[in-house]
Amino acid sequence: MSMEQDKTGAEGGGPAGGAPPPSPPEKPAAPAKAEPPRAPRLVVSTSPHVHRDEDVPRIMRSVVYALVPGILVGLWFFGLVALQVYAIAVAGCMLLEWAFQRMLGRPNTLGDWSAVVTGLLLAMNLPAGSPWWMVVVGCLAAVVLGKGIYGGLGYNPFNPALVARVVLLISFPVQMTTWPAQGGPLTVDATTAATPLGAIREALSLGQTVPQAMAGMDVPLWKLLVGMRSGCLGEVSVVALLLGGLFLLRKGHIKWQVPLGFIATVFLFTGVAWLADPAHYANPLYHTFSGGLFLGAFFMATDMVTSPVTRKGMFIFAVGCGLITVIIRLWGGYPEGVSFAILLMNAATPLIDRYTKPRVFGAKRKLYEEAKAA
Fold it and tell me: Over the stretch 233-260, which tens digit does the pLDDT of each residue have?
């Protein structure tokens, strides 16, 4: 055998001219072990544990939508002067909130729509003929005194729009109690007229009876429902406000305990006074459908920040608002008391929340009572 043959045989891996030896059979791959199912992760966090697909801007926009019927009725009956008040109030609140946040180095909060809601509610609590400078002062009181100095939205103990209304009522009583008469959607200037509650109060001071005062006004209940009467821009139409309130109830943004308890309390106690002395007290339907009761009950007493969080507390809050409103209307110095009633009960909200806080599930009642009393 030559050397070339030896070399060829060596490179082939076998004897010269022969086939390579067969490779050993491969071992079958072991089946992959199935991983045991992983247990769901336990995430420990504080309540609330159930969340809704809602945030502050969405809720505020819903409030704006609910206010639209009342706004449109006010524009229809009071005309262009009402549009001016709405425009100045909304623009003023937005501008002042932006400037106040920037001055304090805080983030811009115009995107949460709370300034728009504050401006609309402020305008709805003003007479249609309010001068522009008074509206600007109201915006300053609402944004700075009502909300900004406490830290902004979520920290204010009082409703900002009502803070502004009370500040204006105390500071400028003549302008805040001068009510333009309704003249139609194109009205630029109008004569003044008394509100139904104000007319009754004036008639009583002159020695007349309530039936005599109501006969002289010629304002039946159906006009109160529709909005054909003098008053603040947003309080005149009960039907429009009721539509907006039902919309908020349907969306789940407010609870029924506050508006129902508020309105029912006013109806009940004014009814008792009317039954006792109908010559000096108006009937309960007149008290219920006139003034700012529906505006306050559905849109300001239900403020999430300044009202109680428990259902029992909401009802106590509503009854308190109703009682104070009745006391001011019947025996106070002002014919209307909704604003003062809500602000006073706003101050009592922390105390109401404290004493209506539900017992923690599983806690012993004795320990719970001791902690509550501490």
Answer: 888 899 999 999 999 999 999 999 999 9
